[in-house]
Amino acid sequence: MSVVLSISGLYAHNGNFSLKNINLDVVNGEIVAIVGENGSGKTTLLNAIAGFVKVDKGKILLNGVDITNREPEERNIGYIFQTLALFPHLTIQDNIKFGLRFKKIDNAEERFNALVKFFKLEHLLSRYPNELSGGEKQKVAIARAIILDPKVLLLDEVTSQLSPIERERVSLELKEIIKNFGKSAIFVTHNIDEATIVGDRIAVLDNGQIIQIGVPYEIFYSPNREEVARLAGVNVIKGVVVEEEDDIKKVDVGSQFIYILGDYEIGDSVIIFIHPEEITLSKTPFKTSAQNSFTGFIDKIVSKSGVATVSVKVSENNTFKALITRKSLEELDLKTGENVYLSFKITAIHSVKAS
Amino acid sequence: MRKIFFRLALGVIAGIGILFIIVPLMRLITYPRPSLLISSLKDPLNQNAILNSITFAFVASVLSVIIGIPLSYLIAKGYFGKLESIIEAICDTPLATPHIIAGIALLLVFGKDGLIGKLLYNTFNIKLIGTAFAVVVAMMYMSFPFFVDTVKEGFKGIDPSIERASRILGASEVHTFFLIDIPLVKGHIISGFLSSFARAISEFGAVIIVAYYPMTAPIRIYDAYTQYNLETSISVAATLLIISLIIFAILRIIGRRVK
Description:
The complex is a heterodimer of chains A (355) and B (259).
Chain A: E1 3-14, E2 17-27, E3 31-35, H1 42-50, E4 55-62, E5 65-66, E6 77-80, H2 92-97, H3 108-118, H4 134-146, E7 152-156, H5 164-180, E8 184-189, H6 192-198, E9 201-206, E10 209-214, H7 216-221, H8 226-231, E11 235-245, E12 248-252, E13 257-261, E14 269-274, E15 280-282, E16 293-304, E17 307-313, E18 319-325, H9 326-332, E19 339-343, E20 349-353
Helix pairs in contact in A: 5-6
Chain B: H1 2-30, H2 34-42, H3 44-76, H4 84-96, H5 99-110, H6 115-124, H7 132-156, H8 160-168, H9 173-184, H10 186-201, H11 205-210, H12 217-227, H13 230-258
C-alpha cells in the first residue's frame, strides 16, 4: 500500500497551543481516526495539514510532494468542517460546483451528476443550505469536497452535533462513502466508539502529541498510556510490584493486591488496565480460586442501551467499573450502596511499566 | 398578570420613544400651509440645495463604501493585531467630535494654509475650501464611522470555516473575498451605506465651516432662518424633510430587495 499522506516531525502552534512531533502516515484508501479530548489539538492538526496553521517544523508530503508551505488552495485536500461550512448565499448546485471554478476536473459535469445521484440530491439543487436538513447538508459538504477528487479527506468532528444513535449510523455511512470513493481520510472525533467504527487505525492525541496509534483492537486492549486507557473507558489502577513468583507478580495497589503477568521486577511501578467487560460481579463469594477477587460496595449504576456500567468501590483509592448486560443487572438485582464481589482473570489484565 | 403588566410597561416606554422621534417631525411637516410647501419646492434656491445635498451625500457614501470595506475587513480579520482596538477607536472618533470642531480640523488640513490645501494651492492654484469637494469631505468625515462600524460587524460575523472551505476548494484569498465575504456582508454594506447617507445628508456643523456654498439643504434652512424669518425656514425645512424621508424610504426599499 502506498503512502498518500506522510507527516513527519511536525511542530505547529495556534496561539498558546502547540502540536509536538507529530508523525503519521496514511496509506491509500485508509481511514485514520484521530481521537482525543477537547483541546488535545485535533482541529489544529487538521488545520496544519490543510494549510490554515503555519508549520513551525517538520514536513507534510502528499503523494510524495512536499506541501508543507503551500497555500490551502494549492494542496488538493478535501476538508469537511464541523459546521459543514456550506456557503449560505449559494444554491446547493453552486455549492457543489464551487471548486470547479478554480480546478480543472476531467468530465466535471458527469462527475457532478454522478455525485448528485449517489447522494440523492437531485431535488435539492436549486435550494439554499438553510432549507436543508442536517443530513442533507452533510451530503452536500461531502459531495462538494469529493467532486474535486482530493488525494485525502479531512473530517473534523462532523457528527458532533448529532444524537448518539444518529452518530453511529452516520459514522458508518461516512465510512462507506469514503471507502466507496476509494479515498484516504483523517477522521477527527472525541468519541472513541465513533473512532472504532470509522477508523482502520486510531491515533490518540493528547496535549498536542500522538501518544498511541494502532488498529482499534490495540487501542482498546493494549493501551500504552493511562490517557489512552481512560479514553477507551478501561479501568486504570496504579501500583508497585512487591512480590514475584515465576511469571506472576503481586502488585500493591493501596490496601489491596492485584496479581498480574509481566516482565517486572520488585519495586517497579506499573499501570494496570482492566476492561470493564472482563470483570465479573456476584452477590455471593466466588467459588473459584481466582487470585484477583475483591469485595466492595456499589457506588453508581449507569444503564445505557441495554448494558449497565456498575462502579464498585473496593478501597478508598480504587473503583472498578464493570460492564454487564441489563438482563444480568436485573438477575443479580444489584442496587447502589449494596456490597458486591468482583473478580477478573489474570490473563484479562494488560499492564505497562509506569514512566 | 405580572407578565402582562411588564409587557404593558415596556410598550408604554417604547411608545414614548417612538413619539419622541416622530412628533417633532410630524409637527414640522404639518405646520406650514400646503401652498407654502409647494412654493418652497418651486424655489430654485431650494431645488439646488436639495440636489446638492443628495448628490454630495451620495458621493460621500460611495467613497465611504470604497474606503470602508477594506478597512472594515482588515479590522474584522484581526490584521491590525494588538493595534486593533486603537484603530477601532480612531475610526469612531468623528462620532465623539463636535461637528463644528471637525469642520475646523478639516479646514486645517484642506484650507488654503492647511497641510494638503496649501500644497494644492501653491502647486496647482487649486482651492478646496468652499467647493463641492470640501462639502463631500466634511460629509464623509462625519458619516464614515457609521459605515465602518456596520460592515465591520458583518465581516466579524462570518464563520471562519466558511472562508476556509472556500480556500481549500481552490479559491485564493482574493477570490474568497469577492465570492464569499462580500456577498455575505451585502446586507451590512447596504445598511452601512444607508446609515452613512442619512448621516451625510443631514450634516450641517462641519459643512458650514468648510463650505457655505455650494449650499446644501441644512445650510439653506439656516440661511432662510437668518435672512428671512422662522416661517420661511419652516416651510423650507418641511419641504426638505419630506424629500429626505422619501429618498430614505426608497433607498431602504431598494436595500431590502437587494438583500
